[in-house]
Amino acid sequence: MTERRLPSAARLAPPVIVGVVAVLGTAVATVVDPGGTRLSLCPLLALAGVACPLCGGLRAVHALTQGDLPAALSFNALLVVTLPLLVLGWAAWVRRATSRSGPVVPTWVVWAGLAVAVVFGVLRNLPPLVPWLTPWLVG
Amino acid sequence: MSTPNGPQDPYQPSGENPYGQQPPADGQQPPAYGQQPPADGQQPPAYGQQPPAYPAAPSYPSAPGYYGTSGTEQNNLGVWSLVLGLAAFVCSLGFLTGVPAIILGRKSKRAAAEGRANNGGLGSAGLIIGWIATVLSIIGIVVFGILVATVGWDELMHNSQYQYSWGS
To answer: Which residues of B are less than 8 Å from A46 in CB distance?
Structure first.
């Protein structure tokens, strides 16, 4: 049961599911301010006090939906900068699933993305850079 | 996100069996050509069992050139599984990326068993991390639900008694 024998509807399901989840998440983050509660829901942040590369992502999306780019960048600069790439990658994914043509994201790009995320995660927890990359950890 | 199921696309026509051969089902190697079927359909044969290099596992002996000789065309599965599993665990995404990591991990292990990938270990890692993160996130959701039910949403979210706030 390999994927290449799946009909196109089944091939289209993964990108569609991811897209729907992303849209729903964005909708929720538009209506609800993820930074508006006093409670952080992230166990890593709560238990270790460490910000992972995605920390502030929901708040950044919320800020973007409010048109506040500087706030979005301060919440999660990496996510905001790479958001267009993620959308492009998703579009390429849909295209591959429908027409079976177009570019494929090479494996090294995935590794590079992981490396960039790890570097960003380390940098944003270094004390000199915390005020710039993770301002909510100050103090 | 991107294209976890992209790399097998160039091999799409193989689903139509242009050579009239049945592809192996359920991760089992075809027992023909004197090859040992793998133990439980998950692991590729050991290195010493095959005369050619390990990545060139000839799962499709009828058309080795057509399917490529590298056996790495579906290595993306394992990489994506590991990355999504790590994101699920480290970034507390839980089942959101944990379930995809599990699915891709299973596909990756199957691809490795059928000679379409040589990094089944990455898929196994992603599979395990994905399961751990998924189970932990479900436990967390249950605990959170119990807290909301007993304490109340507003109390939980805004009363400093329960907060640990942003940061530490």
So the answer is: 164
